[in-house]
User: What shape does this take?
Amino acid sequence: MVTPVLPPQTYDGHEHWTKKGDVNLFLWQKKVPSGEPKGTVLFVHGSSMASTPTFDLQVEGRPYSSAMDWFVSQGYDTWCVDMEGYGKSDKNRDITSNISDGGDDLIAATDYIIEKTGVRSFLVYGISSGALRAANFAERKPDRVARLALDAMVWTGEGSPTLEQRRKNLDKWRTGQRRPIDRDFVWSIFNRDHPGCADDAVIEAFADAILELDDSVPTGTYFDMCANLPLTDPEKLTMPTLIMRGEFDGIAGIDDLLKFFRALPHPAKQFSVMQGISHASIQQKNYMMVYHILQSFFEQPEAVFTGH
Assistant: This one.
């Protein structure tokens, strides 16, 4: 059962750095102040923003705006990592930071966390292209993923009006390593599918946090999602898996995801449609619904009887 909402609290964060070869990767940790945590959550960001704006966004008057603060309040240790080319991680290599590169980043990040904490199995949540990165990681390191949550994901791209529009710029994503972002671009994330799903103050705070770290981001995930789908094989995701899809999401076509869901091999799988939500679910008005769905999945008891 999900713990009732507690009085809002902000927890201290801890900065970490690790290496992926010669590349410096930035990690951010928030942990329970005392006692043994219920588990360790690894958050994986999407194509157009770094990790802390997505998962540790502070907005005045919005209780537990930070997903990391919420899950710490519920007894979890939490981590996120800036993929190469984003935020505080290195941006100097001749690389587009595609989905497979993101899987490499997650392997390097979890290598560090395992060495630092001794934790060997993670509760992994990825959103948008972060879901594809998380799935790539889970295919390659299934022993490190206790439960996998994929939000706003795309599989083949079928039924995705956003990707249909994005493909018009495919030559741009093919030839350039980075694409510019600005405040208007951040607003477009919330206005393209169903305006009104997020409060203006939250979008502004989100834009401030994103643009403080980046004025451009890598093109690799955009190109992958426009030209190289499918990028993950559901039959290789052998752990309990949750598919989360916003009611109005223009990227995550529901029929496409239902086919993906049916192919998942583990019987402890769930599909959740989130009412009143478009794409960037944690920044929307119904964000507490997102936390509830995710926490319920993380806390589902293991099966006592499996039928075998």
Q: What stands out?
A: DSSP finds eleven helices and ten strands in the chain. Residues 42 and 201 are 27 Å apart (CA to CA).
